[in-house]
Design goal:
Layout: E1 2-5, H1 8-19, E2 42-45, E3 58-62, H2 65-74, E4 78-83, E5 90-94, E6 100-105
Parallel strand pairs: 1-2, 3-6
Antiparallel strand pairs: 4-5, 5-6
Length: 118
Amino acid sequence: MVLDAAQRDTVAHFWSDLLALPLLDRDYPATGPIAPGAPGLAFQQCRPPESGRNRFHIDLAVDDLEEATDRVVAAGGSLVREVLDGDHPYRVMLDPEGNEFCLSKGLAGPEDPMSPSE
């Protein structure tokens, strides 16, 4: 998956830190696979984004919404809003360039990319 970024190194380090994925040694910033057999993330230099909603976004399933939110903010992201949706509350977050993604509670499994490493 490729994400456009005006400050691609900043965004690459944000996602690498957030998902605990190494940045690969390439001509452009990219992470390792999100999960076994899954794609990684690559970051493409582009002009600053125009205002408007993302065409797609990433949902991250987490066990602990508070802990995950704290990790996002500590890595340079921010909270937009919290949505209480029955047994599956979620939070809309922004990465350092304003790309939306969600942290979703109640959908996490053993492959939760934001679970603390054992």
